[in-house]
Every structure is written in structure tokens, then in C-alpha cells.
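Complex record, two chains
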Amino acid sequence: MTDSPPIALQGLSVDFLSAGEPPARALRDVSLTIPPRSIVGLVGESGSGKSTVAMAMMGLLAPNARVGAGRIDVGARRIDCTDGAALAGLRGRDFAMVFQDPSASLNPTFTIGAHLHEVLRTRSPGSDRAERQERAIEALRTVGIDRPEARMRNHPHELSGGMRQRVVIAMALLARPRLLIADEPTTALDVTVEAQVMAEIVALRDQIGCSILLITHSLGLVARYCDHVSVIYAGEVLEYGPVAEVVHAPAHPYSADIFACDIEIDAARAPAAAEQRFRIIPGNLPGLRDLPAACIYAPRCRKAVPACTAGHPALLPLTDEPERETRCILAR
Amino acid sequence: MHPGAVVPNPPAIEVAGVTVEFTGLRALDGVSLAVPPAGCFGIVGESGSGKSTLLRPILGLQRPTRGEVRIEGTLQPHRRDFRAQARLVQPIFQDPALSLSPRRRVGQSLDEVGEALGEPRDALRARLGGVFERLGLQMPVLDRYPHQISGGQARRVAIARALLFQPRVLIADEPTAGLDVSVQGDLLNLLQEIRAATGVTLLIVSHNLAVIRLIADRVAVMQGGHIVEEGDSRSVFDAPRSDYTRTLIASWPRGQPVEATG
């Protein structure tokens, strides 16, 4: 396997504009490195901006969004994130996306077969109809759909949520992207179906050799499936690194706090259920229209010291572990 | 529920052979369950398992096709006496907005509890002070409309409304769904405090196995309109008897154990 360069998102900043108010600075200087064939988790809570990262990379932001800066390195190309036409050139070819709601990717008036044929017409313009039909059926079979020939004639509403998500994965399989962006791909699914769909996403990576950006609020999914993780909070990446290191020894207090709040299936139990108490992070997200020139987590941080509010910290490598990065000045 | 199971006290909720059929679909198939008083009982299952359907006859919102539900011995639904019914069982829905009219100030919505109970407004407002204090709500919230308060406050108001009825049984349907992990503990701690302070019987329905494992004394696992396993939470999670329960637990994404720092 030749070592192709990672897909790198550099310095992405996005504002949302609304009349009569200062812009909401939804993303500030977000960078992500996605090595070939690896699964990188982008984990954050509501309002962190994690889905905005995906939509900016796909060039699918809402009309009131303004991309201030950012670039994506894909292979030998460098794409400017402020250039909508350049991003459109990546979409469906280099980048494919799986949304939380598979219906967002499927046209209710088209059959499953029509969706798969459309992908193949774009990606294999030289193919004939019989060849496309054969490859489409094979793709459905690959993602674990029974009776694929019959399913080709079904409409999306005739399939369960898990089956629809498999169809979207089959579309990605045929598109053969360099990067699959999966935004909460299993959040709407039952836990047994989630395990099956995640297995199909990993199998897709193994089969076509793409990289995956897994956007999720589920720390369990990150720990189970990702190689690297980026922890995002209120529009900033606070920590990045290999999953095992980040999970075992977080280099940012926010990462530590959020992992401590996560309830695992094998979490320690109080002697009696009535005595069980649960962790929280007190406080609220900072307002995105009026950000202080300080660590954005400092107001909620258990470890904050006066230096934390003396300036806005950059995302920098750890001294002893250069492959890890944190914005916490206390971890350096 | 197994025929030989020993229930120490008369059950708070007794579900006996309940079948619920919709046109062409049997959503519940002969479900029997005894929920002991003053504990927390969890019901887990996936979409379509019947766990939310089971809440309907328990809340008196639907007459079962067959079988019966009793709350503290009183047959449901108990519509002839609305006040007695409201004091028996109260729901907390997943979306708190469902409990609050968008056109009424929060205080007006809560005053309706007094009207329902035939309690003078002053007496209700006096009790309201205690409930608000327990829930960490400030009195100015009463003058706001639902859209003027935060989601977290709206959830608390919905819980306050339920508590004002002083029900014997509180039913929470997916209480943590849609909540971030940094705030879900707040709601769970609140339910724990209510349970300790009032002795209410708490029935929680959730797809979140990890939460139910910690908060519930007893658990029922549902699949396809049946209860496939029921028992003490520790034994169900640590030594499941049903293959389906084992599959559910094994499917739950688990990472490495995390040690909180500091």
C-alpha cells in the first residue's frame, strides 16, 4: 500500500449572519487531519459545530453562512473552502456523505435502483445499463440487503431506517470516494441495527480504502471504531490525538469532563440504584456572538487558573507526545 | 413477569395479560408485569418493541384489547373520577413542550393543576414554591411563555406540573433522549432526588440501557410486544437469561473504561 497523503482540513472558520446582530462565530480555525484508510472521530455536543464542519467540507452550508477561511488538501490538490464551485467538484466524487436521516439522501419518488444508477452514471460514465444494474445489485448485497434484485424496485419508504441507511452506504460504495463523511449515521437507529450499520461502514472502508470522518456525540462509538479523535467544543477543536491516548489520558479538561459524564454499559454502580448519582458539567456554552479572548472552556473548567483567561490559547502539540494536540495551557 | 416471582408489597402497577391491538397489528401480546411500590422500574427495548404502547393503558389513555391494568389496586382507566386518576399517575414526556401550551404563560399552565384538583389558587401557589425550590426553578419563570425559557427549564416545569398532582406513580418516557451527556445527569439526579423525597414509584421507559442499568431497581426487557425478561437490574444486566437481552447488551457501544482525572 503506497502512503498517500492525509486529507487535511486547515483553518476552517464559519460565521452565521443574521440581520441586526453580530455574526455568530460558529467555527474558528478548525483543522483536521484524516490519514488514509483511517477513521477519525469528530466528537462534540449540541452546538459544538461538528455538523457545520461536515456541511462546510461538502459545500452545503445554509445561505446565511459565511466561510471566512479554510482549505482542504486532497491528494495533490488544495481546495479553498470559500470557493463553492471548487467544493462542488469534490462532492460525490472525492467526498461522499451519510447523514443521520437516510431520507435526507434519498428522493422519495425514485426507486432504490434509480439512486444507485445515478451514482454510477456520474462515477462510471462509460458503463452501460446492464453493467450498472449488475453493480448496483452487487452493492446492495455487499451491504447486507436481502433479495437485492427486488429491493432495486422499492421506494425508500418501503424500507426500514436501517435498510435505508444501508442503501446510502451502498451509494457511497459505488461512488468510491476518498473520504466518507458520516454525520451521526446511527443516531436514529436501534442499538442492534447501529452495530450492523457501523460494521457496514467499516467494511466499506476496507473494501474501497477510503478514509472516514465519523461525526458523533457518542463516545462509545468513537472509542470502539475510531483511530483518531478530535474533540470540538463551541466551534473550536480543543483536543486531537489517537483515540486510546485521548480516552485514557485526556489532555484537555473538557475531554476529561465529557468522558466522565458518559454513562458506559459497564460503569461502576452505587450499592443501591436509589443512591446512584450522575455527573454533569455545570454552566453553559459561551455565546458565539461575543467570545472572550480567553480559553472558551475556562468558565466551566474545574482546573482553570488566572492564566487561562489571559489570552486565547492555540491548538498546539504536547511536548512529550507531538502527535497529540490540545488548547489547554495546563497540559503543555 | 414470571408466575412464581415474589412481590413483597402490593404492586404499585399491576399489568395483567394486557393485549393491545391496532388494525391488523398486535402491539402488545399478553403482557403481565408487577411494579413494586416506591422503587424505580425500567423498561428497555428497541423501536416497535411495544414499550411506549404499554404506557398508554398504564396512563389510562387506552383501554387494552384484553387484560387489565391496576394502579395501587384501582382499575385503569379511571375516568369517572378525574381527580383520583390524576393523583394516581402522571407522565413526564420526552418533549416537555408537549405539556405546556405555547399560548399560555408557565404560571397559567401550572394553575390548571389547581383547577383540575379543585384546589384554590393560593394553596396551589404555596405548594408550588416548595416544588420550584426542589427543582431549582426561579419564580420569575412563571411569568414567561414556554419559548422564553430554556429547554432545561421547560423540562423542569413539565416535571413540576406532574409533581403538583402528588401522584403515586410517575412515568418518564425516554427522559434523556436528545440530551447531551453533559446535562443528562442533571435530569437523572433530579429524578433520584424526587424519588428519595416523595417515595413516588418511578417507571422509566428508555432505549438507553446504560442509564437504566444504573437508575432502575428492576428491569423489564421488551421485544415484539412481549416481555422477554424481567428481574432485578443487576441480574438482568450481569447474567441475562434471554438471548435477546444478551444481544442488546453486546450491541451497546463500549469503549475503554475512562478514569476521571482530578
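Note: Residues 40 and 245 of chain B are 19 Å apart (CA to CA).
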